[in-house]
């Protein structure tokens, strides 16, 4: 039987709505009982999801469908949660065992020192102890919320958990559905591995996507560098990173308008702002890479799955700055071995659209942003490694350039953020990013077990 039969995490699961129940385990016996009798039979397996994707029965991601009643469910546990369940073996990932709150300073999150302990400026609920999370996905909001309600009732009966926080999210309305709140198409560049996200019958969504070993996502499989040291119960599990990232959308667009006009004075203000935004992100709003179309958005590229992700970066900043978000995230040919640090993203926006009173100031008055989600077998070599690149002004390495590329102008979190290459005519000129346009407001690291391990948890361990 293939690994798909055992794997419970499904990072490729299409969705239009996503719900998160963060919890503490109050009663271990009651928790095990409800997991066994109610939850585990409803857990989505990778085999189940992959089969539906191959049969093309899933609606497209992002678009609600009242006729589609399928609801996906996964569960993950923090290091503290695993300890509550007597799973105390070391998983050989220091970030996971510390937890994201203790890791926040290393990630560049804003915060302050209190009695020698760093306290991130997160929403209060994320500062509490979190033992686990139920992750529920749906295309039919009524079915999704009904599932959430029934799950709560099942645990209320056994007194197994205490809810810490509930979060309901959805994609942006059409025609902005594929875009995050800054307006840029999301979810294009993802690693693929055969038999899990594509096979001979189901081609990769985008040509040019890196094909990696399954162990980059699943523990104990080929490509997992800690394969020989994982405890048996960790096999086919995956680390799940959750981050709440607040986006200051009016402020970001005002920044593009002001600086775009300075860098590209011959263009109309909106066109200049769009071009600067494209160089900061590395893609135009449609998803067209600036490498393939430096001067204008080109829908013939963004609409073509064979072209939109099929490119390499030049070894200068003429078409794409080294500090562009896409290149900092995944430098492709400009950093040999960069595939070793990839992870599988499955993010979703939260909050409503920007309103007129926010644009007038311009100032963010309502909470909105991105729920950043990703899966990997190593947080240290995956998410955390990449996050630290955003705040490394000397990445990529000096053999590509003489000047410091600077920081990721979107996700970099240092106060003196700058980037070079924004101006193609003056590539060493520094663009100062000013205030952070993205603020981390909470998060945690979770381990998502295999079905076999969930069954062991539900009985006893």
UniProtKB/TrEMBL annotation:
One of its GO terms (molecular function) is peroxidase activity. It comes from Gymnopus androsaceus JB14. Residues 12-173 form the DyP dimeric alpha+beta barrel domain. PROSITE patterns: DYP_PEROXIDASE (PS51404). The keyword Signal applies. Residues 230-394 form the Dyp-type peroxidase C-terminal domain. One of its GO terms (cellular component) is cytosol. This is Dyp-type peroxidase. Its cofactor is heme b. Keywords: Heme, Iron, Metal-binding, Oxidoreductase, Peroxidase, Signal. InterPro entries: Dimeric_a/b-barrel, DyP_N, Dyp_perox_C, Dyp_peroxidase. Residues 294-307 have a biased composition (Basic and acidic residues). Belongs to the DyP-type peroxidase family. Residues 292-314 are annotated as: Disordered.
């Amino acid at each position: 039987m293939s690994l798909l039969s055992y794997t419970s995490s499904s990072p490729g699961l299409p969705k239009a709505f996503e719900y998160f129940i963060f919890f503490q385990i109050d009663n271990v016996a009651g928790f095990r009982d409800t997991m066994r009798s109610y939850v585990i039979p409803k857990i989505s397996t990778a085999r189940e999801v992959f089969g539906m994707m191959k049969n093309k029965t899933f609606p497209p991601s992002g678009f609600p469908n009242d006729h589609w009643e399928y609801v996906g469910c996964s569960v993950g546990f923090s290091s503290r949660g695993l300890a509550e369940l007597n799973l105390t073996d070391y998983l050989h990932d220091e970030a996971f065992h510390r937890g994201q709150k203790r890791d926040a300073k290393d990630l560049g999150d804003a915060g302050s020192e209190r009695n020698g302990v760093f306290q991130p400026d997160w929403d209060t609920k994320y500062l509490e102890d979190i033992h686990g999370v139920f992750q529920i996905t749906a295309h039919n909001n009524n079915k999704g919320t009904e599932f959430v309600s029934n799950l709560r009732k099942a645990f209320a009966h056994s007194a197994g958990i205490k809810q810490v926080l509930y979060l309901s999210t959805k994609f942006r309305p059409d025609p902005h559905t594929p875009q995050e709140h800054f307006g840029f198409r999301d979810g294009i560049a993802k690693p693929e591995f055969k038999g899990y996200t594509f096979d001979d019958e189901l081609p990769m969504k985008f040509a040019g996507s890196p094909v990696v070993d399954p162990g980059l996502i699943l523990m104990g499989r080929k490509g997992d560098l800690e394969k020989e040291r994982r405890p048996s119960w960790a096999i086919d599990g995956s680390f799940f990173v959750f981050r709440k990232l607040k986006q200051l959308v009016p402020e970001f667009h005002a920044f593009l308008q002001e600086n775009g006009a300075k860098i590209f004075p011959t263009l109309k203000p909106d066109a200049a702002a769009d071009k600067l935004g494209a160089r900061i992100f590395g893609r135009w709003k449609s998803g067209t890479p600036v490498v393939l179309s430096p001067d204008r958005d080109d829908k013939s590229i963004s609409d073509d799955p064979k072209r939109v992700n099929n490119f390499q970066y030049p070894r200068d900043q003429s078409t794409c700055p080294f500090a562009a978000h896409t290149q900092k995230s995944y430098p492709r040919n400009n950093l040999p071995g960069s595939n070793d640090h990839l992870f599988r993203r499955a993010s979703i926006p939260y909050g409503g659209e920007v309103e007129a009173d926010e644009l007038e100031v311009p100032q963010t008055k309502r909470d909105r942003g991105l729920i950043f989600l990703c899966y990997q077998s190593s947080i240290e070599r995956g998410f955390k490694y990449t996050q630290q690149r955003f705040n490394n002004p000397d990445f990529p390495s000096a053999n590509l350039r003489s000047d410091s590329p600077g920081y990721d102008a979107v996700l970099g979190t240092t106060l003196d953020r700058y980037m070079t290459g924004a101006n193609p005519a003056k590539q060493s000129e520094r663009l100062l990013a000013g205030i952070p346009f993205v603020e981390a407001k909470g998060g945690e690291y979770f381990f998502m077990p295999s079905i076999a391990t969930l069954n062991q948890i539900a009985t006893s361990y």
